[in-house]
Structure formats: structure tokens, C-alpha cells
């Protein structure tokens, strides 16, 4: 009678397998949705040639491959640097990180936009859409957009629908580029944004839409786009583009962002109150 020796599988082993499977899946998805997939296919072609050289004992090719493998690892890191940086930025914006760690010390809290600001932005976008005036509005959240703000012209003006319409009016000095909204104010105009290199985006999208997706990939901002060709309104959030949306959908998304920020502010305020209570209970040195 034959006995099969089975390894003892513990709960830790199962959890470890699930974690590895989860990481591999997301790495493959990341490769598939970025330029890294094309670069990775090129590396696979080189590896196939090296495998063939090993099978047929092509010593010269094997010697060259052996001498260049260390340099090749460094070259891969350099080639994939933009994609790796983007992946790490996206990992850092995951909500489970923000729930475990709070980096807000209470000194540089960002003012959040009000319901009035939401209504003014929605009103301006669809007024511009009626006359096919192109617009690009970036709404800053937790991730500071100072590096993009510095590429434009500083304004620091209270946001209103009339202001937005005048900024994006054709042939005016500030109409080209994006504006950045921080809290209830327009802080800068004519700002340059990074363009997305997502291959899944439609080929008929223009520079405005790709810039909107690009800034949403590197930050937690929400970006509103008004198409100059069609007058349709779109919204870019976390690398996704919601196209041809109506006023109700846009207002709902903006209000959700506002409510989420208010809740975060209450959480921070609750933590401060708890700290104050602990300090009050500590015995005095006197």
C-alpha cells in the first residue's frame, strides 16, 4: 500500500498564498494597462533568444548575456521608473493606508469646498457647454498640487460661475490650460497638467481629457472637463473618466467628495479632542 506524504497546510500558508495571488494579479493588471506591458514583451523576446542560445550551446551569446545581466537589471529599473513611480503613488493613495496612518498635524489643514462652490461649478460648466467653451477645472483634495500650481498664474479668487466663465472665454489671456480650485477659491489658472499614457483611453479624446485623467492618476483630485468640440461635460477621478455626464451626476460626485472631506475633518477634530482630554487628566508638575 502506497502512502502519499502530504505537507501540512496551515492557515498561515493559505493566507500567504492568497496574498501572493493578489499581488501577482495586480502586478499583471498594472503591466497590462500601462506602457510597461509593451516594454515587458520586448524583454520576453530577449529572454527567448537567451533560452535558444542555451539550448543550442551558443557560447558567445551566453557569455554576453552573463556579462550584461547586472547592467540589465539597472537598465530595467531605469526604463520602468515612470511606471513604478505611478504604481507606488497609486498604492500610497489607497484608503487602507489613510485609515491606518494620519499624517495631518492640524497645522496645514486644507479648506474644503462648500455646497455653494459645488453649485457654482456645476452651473458654470453647463453654461460653458451650451456655447461649446472648453474648460479644465482641477479640484484639489488631500494631495497638494503646488508643483502644478506653480506652472500657471496665481489668482487666489473666490470661486463663482461668472469667474469661471470669464476665465475660459475664448481668446482671453487665462483661457488656455487648467485652473486649480483649493477649497472655495481659484488659486491658479493656465496650469500645465501631466498627460495620461493609459492605452485604454479612447483615441478620439483630446489633450484636455488626457490631462484630466493624467492629474487624477498622480493625485486624489477631481477634474471637470468641458469639451470645446461637443460641449459635453466629463469628470476624471482616480484615473477613470466619466464621459458625457449630466448635472445631477456631476453634483452628486462633487458632493460626495465634499462630504468625505467633512468626515475626515471630524475624525481629525475627534482625535484632537481626545488628546486634549488625555492632557487634562495628566497630573500637574506643580
TrEMBL record:
| Superkingdom in the source lineage | Bacteria
- Name the keywords, alphabetized: ATP-binding, Cell membrane, Membrane, Nucleotide-binding, Nucleotidyltransferase, Transferase, Transmembrane, Transmembrane helix
Catalytically driven reaction(s): 2 ATP = 3',3'-c-di-AMP + 2 diphosphate
Do you know which Gene3D superfamilies this protein is assigned to? DNA integrity scanning protein, DisA, N-terminal domain (3.40.1700.10)
Which Gene Ontology MF annotations are present? Answer: diadenylate cyclase activity
Quaternary context: Probably a homodimer.
Kindly give the HAMAP family that the UniProt entry links to this protein.
DacA
Q: What family, per the record?
A: Belongs to the adenylate cyclase family. DacA/CdaA subfamily.
Name listed for the protein in its UniProt record: Diadenylate cyclase
Species per Swiss-Prot/TrEMBL record: Maccoyibacter intestinihominis
Gene that encodes it: cdaA
Amino acid at each position: 500500500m502506497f502512502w502519499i506524504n502530504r505537507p501540512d497546510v496551515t492557515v498561515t500558508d493559505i493566507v500567504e498564498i492568497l496574498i501572493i495571488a493578489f499581488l501577482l494579479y495586480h502586478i499583471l493588471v498594472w503591466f497590462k494597462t500601462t506602457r510597461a506591458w509593451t516594454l515587458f514583451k520586448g524583454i520576453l523576446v530577449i529572454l527567448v533568444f537567451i533560452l535558444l542560445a542555451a539550448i543550442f550551446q551558443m557560447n558567445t551569446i551566453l557569455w554576453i548575456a552573463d556579462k550584461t545581466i547586472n547592467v540589465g537589471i539597472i537598465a530595467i529599473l531605469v526604463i520602468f521608473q515612470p511606471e513604478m513611480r505611478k504604481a507606488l503613488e497609486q498604492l500610497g493613495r489607497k484608503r487602507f493606508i489613510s485609515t491606518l496612518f494620519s499624517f495631518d498635524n492640524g497645522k496645514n489643514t486644507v479648506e474644503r469646498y462648500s455646497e455653494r462652490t459645488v453649485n457654482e461649478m456645476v452651473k458654470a460648466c453647463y453654461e460653458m457647454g451650451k456655447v461649446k467653451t472648453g474648460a479644465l477645472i482641477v479640484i484639489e483634495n488631500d494631495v497638494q498640487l503646488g508643483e502644478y500650481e506653480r506652472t500657471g498664474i496665481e489668482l487666489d479668487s473666490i470661486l463663482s460661475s461668472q469667474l469661471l466663465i470669464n476665465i475660459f472665454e475664448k481668446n482671453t489671456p487665462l483661457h488656455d490650460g487648467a485652473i486649480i480650485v483649493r477649497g472655495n477659491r481659484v488659486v491658479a489658472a493656465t496650469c500645465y497638467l501631466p498627460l495620461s499614457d493609459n492605452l485604454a483611453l479612447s483615441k478620439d479624446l483630446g489633450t484636455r481629457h488626457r490631462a484630466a485623467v493624467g492629474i487624477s492618476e498622480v493625485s486624489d483630485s477631481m477634474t471637470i472637463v468641458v469639451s470645446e468640440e461637443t460641449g459635453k461635460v466629463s469628470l476624471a477621478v482616480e484615473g477613470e473618466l466619466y464621459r458625457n455626464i449630466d448635472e445631477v451626476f456631476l453634483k452628486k460626485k462633487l458632493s460626495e467628495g465634499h462630504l468625505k472631506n467633512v468626515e475626515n475633518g471630524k475624525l481629525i477634530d475627534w482625535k484632537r479632542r481626545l488628546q486634549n482630554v488625555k492632557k487634562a487628566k495628566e497630573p500637574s508638575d506643580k
